[in-house]
Design a protein that fits this description.
single chain; 320 residues; alpha+beta; Glutaredoxin; five-stranded antiparallel β-sheet; five-stranded mixed β-sheet; 10 helices; 19% strand
Length: 320
Amino acid sequence: MLRACLFRACFFIVGLTIAGEAPGIAAPAQPSASQNAAPKIDKQKFGDYVRYAEGFPAAVQIAVDDPTPSPFKGYYRVLVHLSSGPQKLDRLYYVSADGQQFVAGNLWDINRSPFVDTLQHLPTTGPSFGPANAKVTIIVFSDFECPYCRELAKTLRDNIPQKYPNDVRVMFEDFPIDAIHKWARAAAEASHCIEREKPEAFWAFHDWIFEHQQEVDSANLGDKVAAFAKQQNLDPTKISACMASHATAEQVNASQKAGQELQISRTPTLFINGRMVPGAISWEQLDTVIKMELNRPKEVASSSAEPCCEITIPSVGKGR
C-alpha cells in the first residue's frame, strides 16, 4: 500500500523501534556461551498472537524465527518477519527462558548501554569519513533516490567535518526502497563499483548523485555514472561492466538486510552511537544529539512535509 510521506522523511513500513551498536561507544559483551539453551516456542501460536495483538490482517504474511541469545540474562531474541506484497519488515521481540512471556518493546539493563542489543547488530564496514577512533559514530542508512536522504546528506557533509573533525565518524549503509525508487538499487551498486576502483571516490559519487538526483532516472543512470567515472579519472568501461554484472549487489543486499533486522521504518535513518534517529533531522537537532553523546554520563560510557513516499504493512493499530 502506497501512501504519502509524513514528517519530512521517506518512510518504509511502520515498525516498532528498538534502538541499538556502532563504533564510538565501547562494544557490549556478546551473549554468554554458557547461557542455557534457547527455549522452544510454538511459532504458529506466537505468530497468531502477534497478528491479533498488532492488528495485522490475513494478507500480511508472518514468519517467526527460532529464539537466539540476547544480551539480557533470562531473555532471548525472536525475530518476526512481516511481508505484504513486495514490502518486508523485521520486528524484534524478547521471550523469557520458559518460552511463555514475550516483550514487545525496549528491554533495558540499567547497568549497560540502553542500545546494547542494536549495538551488537549494526554493520561496521561501510564507507566512512572521520577518524576510526571517534567518540561518536553515526551510521546512516540511506537511499540515493530519496529526496530527504539528499537533505540529510548535505547536512552531514556540510557540518560534521567542519565542527567535529576529530570527534565524529560517519558511515554509510544502503537501504534502497525498491517499490517506489526505481533506480536507487542500481545507484547503490554503482557507488560500490566506484569504491572498488578508487575508495576515496565513493564520497565524491555520494555528493554528486545527491546533487544531481533530479536529473537522474532509470534510463540515463548508466550514462550519468560513466560520465562521473571519467571525471574521476576512472575507466568508465570497467564501472559499466561492474554495474551490468551486479558485482556489488551482495554488498547492497547485506546492508539492506541489516537495516531490516534493525527495524528501520524510513529513509534516512541514523544510528548515533546506537541511538536510532529516523528522518532528515536538522543540523540543530543532530548537533544536540552529538553533544549529548560527547557528554554522556560516565556510568553508561563503557556500556554499551512535502509528500514523498511511504509503504506500510496493513494494520488496525496505526495510531500509535
